[in-house]
Write a structure and sequence with these properties.
four-stranded antiparallel β-sheet; 8 strands; single chain; two-stranded antiparallel ribbon
């Protein structure tokens, strides 16, 4: 294993440990308080650098409004601000990146489903959040690390309402990276 991969794995494990502490101890944890004593950490697929891919960004200067359905049968409005094009499992693929209209940050919300959805991962899909360090332009490259894919809070408690990935973000491959559900 080269040093960059080792550093990446160490950082990924630190991220997972921090999230487990939050879920076990924080008052805003999605784990119901009566279940926290029995919580012994989230389940994850093994780290796999093959699921760290470079995506080419297409920025949408006039983002289209999209209503995403939610886990509790409502809708929430997002803006389709960018399209991310990448290769995964030998195929060219795309994911749409979103932002809420009032969100002034650069954070990109990327909900997705894949062939593990409803079997090895949460049946409502998983999320990635990308935090570019600058405004993106057409043709920029950004790293998609599916090892950081996570289940929304509604996977752990019905008290949360979570946006569901639109059909445009359903990947026709198994992404065996990130959080999983046992």
């Amino acid at each position: 294993m080269d040093e960059d991969t080792e550093d990446w794995e160490t950082q990924l494990q630190a991220n997972r440990d921090e999230k487990d502490r939050f879920f076990a101890e924080h008052r805003q944890s999605p784990i119901p308080p009566e279940d926290r004593d029995d919580f012994d950490g989230l389940s994850y697929f093994d780290p796999d650098p093959e699921y760290r891919v470079e995506a080419t960004v297409t920025v949408h200067e006039s983002p289209e409004s999209v209503d995403l359905e939610t886990s509790d049968d409502r809708t929430v409005r997002y803006l389709h601000v960018a399209t991310l094009s990448f290769d995964l499992d030998g195929e060219s693929r795309e994911l749409h990146a979103f932002r809420q209209a009032a969100d002034e940050s650069r954070t990109l919300f990327v909900p997705f489903r894949d062939k593990t959805t409803g079997q090895q991962s949460y049946d409502g899909g998983r999320y990635m959040e990308l935090e570019p360090d600058r405004d993106l332009a057409d043709g920029d490259e950004i790293t998609l690390d599916f090892n950081l894919a996570y289940s929304p809070f509604c996977a752990y408690s019905d008290t949360f309402s979570c946006p569901l990935p639109p059909e445009s973000n359903w990947l026709d491959t198994a992404v065996t990276a990130g959080e999983r559900i046992d």
